[in-house]
Amino acid sequence: MNSLQFDSMMKKSMARILKPACAVLFTSVCLQNSALANIDVEMYQATKAGQGQSLGIITLSENEHGVTFTPDLKGLTPGQHGFHVHQFASCEPKEKDGKVVPAGAAGGHFDPNSAEHHDEPWSNGHLGDLPALFVNENGQAKSPVLAPRLKLEQLKQHAVMIHQGSDNYADEPKPLGGGGKRVACGVIK
Questions:
Q1: How crowded is residue 106: how many other Cβ atoms within 10 Å of its Cβ?
Q2: Strands 38-47 vs 99-101: parallel, antiparallel or unpaired
Q3: How many CB atoms lie within 10 A of CB 116?
Q4: Torsion angle of alpha carbons 99, 157, 110, 166, nearest 10°?
Q5: CA–CA gap between residue 174 and residue 118 (Å, rounded)
Q6: Environment class of residue 183 by beta-carbon count within 10 Å: exposed (0-12), middle (13-18) or buried (19+)?
Q7: Do residues 76 and 104 both lie within one domain?
Q8: Are residues 25 and 93 in the same domain?
Q9: Residues 100 and 180 in one domain
Q10: Same-domain status, 5 and 49
C-alpha cells in the first residue's frame, strides 16, 4: 500500500467516524436549543408552613410578542387573580412585621429597571406585572397570558406568583394593585 492509498483509506475511515459524531452533536445542539424555548414551572400552594400541594404547571415560552405563560392548573378559587413574576427564586414563607407571609421569600415584583411602581403589563411599571390569571368555575386555569415586555432569559431564578383576587394594575387605592395574599408560587429554574 502506497501513501496515496493509505491517505485515501484514512479519509474514508475518518468520514465514517465523523459523520455520525457530527449528526449526534448537531441533534443534541438542536434539542438543547429547543429546550431553551420553553420552561415548565411547577406551581404549589403557598402556605405559612411552606410549600403545599402541587397545583400543576405553567409553561413559559418566548415568541416575537414576548413571553407566553400557559397554565395547566387546578385547585384554585374561581375568578381573576393577580399574577406576577417576583424577585427571588424562592417560595418559602418569610416573617414580615411579626407575621408569616406565605412565599414571602420571593420578595416583591420583579423590577430590574427600578420602575418602583405597579402598572399594566404593557406599560412602564414592574417588568413582573402580568395580565390577570383567569380561573374557571371548576378551579382550573388554562388560558394563556402574554407578557409583552419580557424575554425568557430574564425570568430564570425568579418566582411566579398567583395572588388571591384580582389586580387593578395601580398603586391606588392600595399598593401593588390591591391583590390579596399569595396563594400559589413556583420557582423558574
A1: 28
A2: unpaired
A3: 11
A4: -70
A5: 10
A6: buried
A7: yes
A8: no
A9: yes
A10: no
Same domain, 163 and 146: yes
Sort 4 into a burial class: Cβ within 10 Å, 0-12 / 13-18 / 19+: exposed
Residues 43 and 89 in one domain: yes
Q: 17 vs 64, which has greater pLDDT? A: 64
In the prediction, which pLDDT does 123 show?
67
Q: Confidence class of residue 9 from pLDDT cuts 50, 70 and 90? A: low
Q: What CATH number corresponds to the domain at position 49? A: 2.60.40.200
Query: Considering all CA atoms of the chain, what is the largest pairwise distance in Å, rounded to the nearest integer?
Result: 90
Asked if 80 and 166 sit in the same domain, the reply is: yes
Same-domain status, 84 and 166:
yes
Nearest CA to 67 among 86, 39, 88? 39
> If residue 39 lies in a helix (H) or strand (E), which one and from where to where?
strand 38-47
Q: Which among 63, 46, 64, 43 is positioned nearest to 54, based on CA atoms?
A: 43
How far apart CA 165 and CA 183 sit, in angstroms, is: 10
Domain span holding position 152: 38-188
Bridge pairing between strands 50-63 and 38-47: antiparallel
Q: What is the DSSP string of 101-153?
A: ETTGGG-SB--TT---S---TTTTS-TTB-PPEEE-TTS-B---EEETT--HH
